[in-house]
Amino acid sequence: MSSFRILLVGGGLLCAISAIYVRNLQDGSAVFPTLRHFQPRDIRIRDAEGAIRRFAEGLQFKTVSRSNGSNETEGWDAFSGLHAHLTHSYPVVFSKLRLEKVSEWSLLFKWPGRDSSLKPVLCISHQDVVPATSESAWTQHPFSGARAGGYIWGRGAQDVKITIFAMLEAVTALLDQGFQPERTLYLAFGHDEEVGGGHGARAVADVLRKRGVQLAFVLDEGGPLLVDGLQPFIRDKAVALVGTAEKGYVSMDVSFRGKGGHSSLPPVDGTQAVTQLSRFLTDMHAHLPIARIVPPTLEFLQAVGAASSNPVISFVLARCASWPLKPLLALFLARQPGEVAAGVRTTVAVTGVTTHPAAGNVLPSLATAQLNFRYLPGEVGDFAERYLQNLLPRHADVEVKVHERHEMASAVTPVTGSAFAIVHQAVQETLAKDRVVATVPFLLTGGTDSKHYQDLCGGQTLRFMPVAMNRTAGDLKRIHGMDERVAEGAFLDAIRFYIRFFQLALGGDE
Ligand SMILES: [Zn+2]
Fold this sequence. Notes:
The structure is a single chain. The chain is an alpha+beta fold and about 500 residues long. It has 15 helices and 17 strands. The structure holds zinc ion. Zinc ion (ZN) binds near residues 159, 160 and 193.
């Protein structure tokens, strides 16, 4: 066969394969469930004004967690104030659902379903917020719960008191309609998520574990509804970013020892502790963990390709699982800005460098770098140790200390499973009224409270907050930043989402 004919046959085959693939995508068949279509529903909120007011007042409680691991002292008054406000605002929920306070401040509600053979669903949020710095520079005071310009302002407006209030409004609406769930619902609102959830979510998970509760799946905070899509890949659709996995967390100290002495007589042979450490860090930066595309990011790319109107992007991403495109794409993505690059490799960050002794005229005999690894799903437990072993110089006097907190990445929740299907349907029916929305799975690079419940739900966890945000307009920077706020309409849509989500997830009468 001439090379021209081989090319022709090969090209024809490629076209046929891609035609089948694209048709599968367009069918919305099992290949890509994020394309299934559902008609938007008209869900009326009976007391929209009251709902907004209750939420805005909830932002006035200064339930701040500080990163030293303890809540600030005046915080407990704020938590009891918030609890009183919730009790007063949602009397039907507090009378019809069972409430337990865990570690005093975390709230665990149970709405028993009629069929106890069905595994319960757990929805998580958290009551605490990060501190608000530069309070006077905010447009509205961060704990005012002000309403201005169509927005509700304050710490927790986005992260994440909004989902507590939206869920409680939704449960109230369903109770008012006489809805009776088939499946049991748990709502768990932790009090220390911003500092790791060690006293809140972990203790709630212990309570459920002791009772032998096995969950169908968990819905936690996570990606928002990006109304401006994912530039430059998706421009003409909104994107519901649903986290199907989160990365792991491992920290280590690497310490080099060298000769100390007076700073007026520095050695010139490179044996100083600081010199050795700086050589190691430079070497580490030149040999970062290998970039590779693993399932959550693979599905992210496939979903983006399926949703993109750009034919080149669609064509390329539809084939992103194939060789040699997959490794080439991994290399390309690893060179992109932070969040894209972090999706394709186990990252390692230098979070601090210390020397000992520290004085202006002394050569330190000890130099230590604090490293923080964020593991990709599927990474093996001792990855960081083995990675460092390959980099550390053989004969150096060096010590590696692994920190106690050692979390592997979560399991990956399949986009073909029922949990994803339910969230996707609720998104399409409630958030796609005046826009086309693509549901896109992704890998969370940070951590959420849901990590504490992994064994209770067999890793079936989705991380999504049904809150409209515009990345181009800077909405994501407000989270943990200044001028946190949410549009009043976005809050009402979040309530609609949960109403529909609870109907779908819990079954029972509509
Ligand atoms: Zn949060």
